[in-house]
Design brief:
CATH class: Alpha Beta
Shape: globular
Number of domains: 1
Structural class: alpha+beta
Order of helices and strands: HHEEHEEEE
CATH architecture: Roll
Radius of gyration: 13 Å
CATH topology: Nuclear Transport Factor 2, Chain: A
Number of strands: 6
Strand order of the largest sheet: 2-1-6-5-4-3
Helix content: 25-40%
Oligomer: single chain
Length: about 110
């Protein structure tokens, strides 16, 4: 799958459990929306991701991508320690200047 570099970096970091690499894919003022909560800024995004990993021990596997340019949607299979695992979720990325500026997971 030919994903934009920052999106590929996000999923690569996710797979490696690498919080530093994951946060590096985001722009300074980036926003993540997940499970009804909003996480704004790199510190909050790191906190959100680390807490989610510790709680669910999830693994994310991209299935397909649509869109291009500044808006990319990736359908991914997410499995872990949560009800109804595995689940297919959509990751909607907004990209600017090579960095993720927004991510909505649903």
């Amino acid at each position: 799958m030919d994903m934009p570099e920052s999106v590929q970096a996000y999923f690569d970091a996710e797979r490696r459990n690498d919080a530093d690499a994951l946060v590096a894919a985001f722009a300074v003022g980036a926003v993540v929306r997940d499970e009804g909560a909003v996480h704004e800024g790199l510190t909050a995004i790191r906190r959100w991701w680390v807490a989610a990993k510790e709680k669910t021990h999830h693994v994310t596997a991209p299935i397909e991508m649509s869109g291009g340019g500044e808006t990319v949607s990736v359908c991914a299979l997410v499995s872990g320690d949560f009800p109804n695992s595995p689940a297919t979720l959509d990751f909607a990325f907004t990209i600017a200047q090579g960095k993720i500026v927004a991510l909505e997971i649903g």
